[in-house]
Specification:
The chain is of the alpha/beta class. Helices cover 38% and strands 24% of the residues.
Amino acid sequence: MTDPVLEIRKLTKRFGALTVSDGIDFDLRPGEIHALIGPNGAGKSTLIKQICGELHPDAGAILFSGRDLAGEGSVARARRGLARTFQVSSVAPEFTALQNVVLAVQGASGATFRFLRPALGDAALTGPARAFMERVGLSGRENVPASILSHGERRRLELAMALAMEPRVFLLDEPMAGLGPEGSQEMTAILSDLRHEAPILLVEHDMDAVFTLADRISVLVYGRIIATGTVDEIRANAEVQSAYLGDDA
């Protein structure tokens, strides 16, 4: 079996008397999409924040390519290749779509910050930025201010910015949120392609998308993983049906 890219071992996080991560174990393997599902309040966002370094666990370990990330903050983890998108879009609305991606390319290169105007004249920055935008279906939208992009286009822009980080893992927090059926289908196709770039940990409530995309699914309920398996295994799991899927299975 191929070694996991990301391993979560006995991860535990408490806020006072409330345990929000209760000895969580799972992993992410090369080339796969591993979906993390569960009801609201299950602890999914808290888990992602711990993986990204925004929160520090009380116990357990997070291993990235075998390296324990304890003590590393979110910036260091991003530089190692943990690329995150957010449930609420995090693009800079005052910049154009291309400017947003150029900034991401510039940040990933480690270059000294330059003002946007000269940076936009640098083909070493704009060339990759345009290619990342094309990859997510945003060709022709380069000069549109991010503030007037559609919701779905902003989600794609986030993915283009994540691609600019040359990721080794995508951490995607509800990329389908706010998208209609057509937008969800388009995003599903994009994510299916991105798995060839890097494996994806997908936090998502859209079960049609999850069942279409996921190689494996882990179900988080009250801070505890109650099941991990293939789509068919999760659909057939009585505990999962009772706790989360219900009639959707």
